[in-house]
Structures are given as C-alpha cells and as structure tokens.
Automatic annotation (TrEMBL):
<dbReference type="InterPro" id="IPR034660">
    <property type="entry name" value="DinB/YfiT-like"/>
</dbReference>
<keyword id="KW-0378">Hydrolase</keyword>
<dbReference type="InterPro" id="IPR024775">
    <property type="entry name" value="DinB-like"/>
</dbReference>
<dbReference type="GO" id="GO:0016787">
    <property type="term" value="F:hydrolase activity"/>
</dbReference>
<protein>
    <submittedName>
        <fullName>Putative metal-dependent hydrolase</fullName>
    </submittedName>
</protein>
<dbReference type="Pfam" id="PF12867">
    <property type="entry name" value="DinB_2"/>
</dbReference>
<feature type="domain" description="DinB-like">
    <location>
        <begin position="35"/>
        <end position="168"/>
    </location>
</feature>
C-alpha cells in the first residue's frame, strides 16, 4: 500500500466555502460517533497491537489515540474561545512533540478513550446548540495566520475523527485483527 494512502486513508481534508445545515449535522454526528467506534475497535487490543505503528515511521496506535484526545481537547477549548471572544488567536501546540511525551507513548489507551468519550459528550452538546450566527464565529490560527469559521472547523474535526479511526481500522484489517 502506498505511503500517502496509509497516511491519509480517507484523503486530505478539503474545506468548503460554505456548509449546509445538513452537512453540519452530519459532521457533528461523525464527531459524536468517534468514541464508540474507537472503543469498539480497540477494546480488546493487547499492548503488542497498541504499540504497532499504523504506517512506516508513523505513530503507534497508542500514540494515535492519545493524539486524538489531545487534539480534541484543544478543539473543544478553541470552540469555547471563539464563542466567547471576538476572533481570538488560539494557542497552537506541537502535536509531534506531544506524541513523544511519556504519557503518549506508555499510558493505557483506556485513559484517552474515556477522555475522548467525555470531551465528545460536552463538545457535541455545545455543537448541537449552535445556530447560524455562532457557526459563523471565527478564531485565528497563528501557525498560518488563517481565520477559521466554526462550521469549517466542525467539518475539519469530523474529517480528523474519521481519518484517525480509519488509520487504526485499516491497520486491523491488514493484519486480520478485526
């Protein structure tokens, strides 16, 4: 399998100029479903499987799950900032370095699976409460000085959710672990 396909099993995220209410609802449902999908897929995996990289020179599944927890915690906070401040500049973080910290390399995935579960409960509750005015609110990401509308960020995290789930799922399929 080609490295690009292993890295991006559902393709790269491509933002749209606008999102319909139906697309936003679907994207929120994808975000909502992630914790259960991960728990169902990884629930019986032993340390050997969890310490397997999903691609050459990639993260282990353990690091991947901890990354999703880190990323989605940051996303939830960014939403709250955008909803309570006028176009705030968010704080980026070095995800590659975070993935190398001892808790990301060694902690049981159950910790992050539960964290994802509960962050998503709060996040989805918030997302489902947003109207058109709130979905048009923005924040600035200083890494590329981009202004990000919340409806687009929802789409990005729906993609992010499925992107990382598919990395683990396709690893399981390739190794007949499913």
């Amino acid at each position: 399998m080609e490295l690009e396909q292993l890295r991006f099993p559902i393709g790269r995220f491509v933002p749209q100029d606008q999102y319909t209410p139906a697309e936003i609802k679907t994207n929120i449902q994808i975000i909502s479903a992630l914790p259960s999908k991960f728990i169902n897929l990884l629930g019986g995996w032993d340390n050997e499987k969890l310490n397997t990289t999903y691609r050459p020179e990639g993260w282990t599944v353990r690091q991947l799950v901890h990354h999703v927890a880190d990323s989605h915690m940051n996303a939830y906070i960014r939403f709250r900032l955008a909803l309570t401040e006028d176009n705030p500049t968010i704080k980026p973080y070095e995800e590659q370095l975070w993935a190398e910290l001892p808790d990301a390399k060694e902690a049981q995935v159950e910790l992050s699976l539960q964290l994802i579960r509960y962050i998503h409960l709060r996040w989805v509750l918030l997302l489902n409460s947003l109207g058109e005015k709130e979905l048009a609110r923005t924040y600035v990401h200083p890494a590329n000085n981009s202004t990000n509308r919340l409806d687009m960020v929802i789409a990005n995290y729906a993609w992010h959710s499925e992107h990382h789930y598919q990395q683990a799922f396709q690893l399981a399929a390739r190794n007949n672990w499913a």
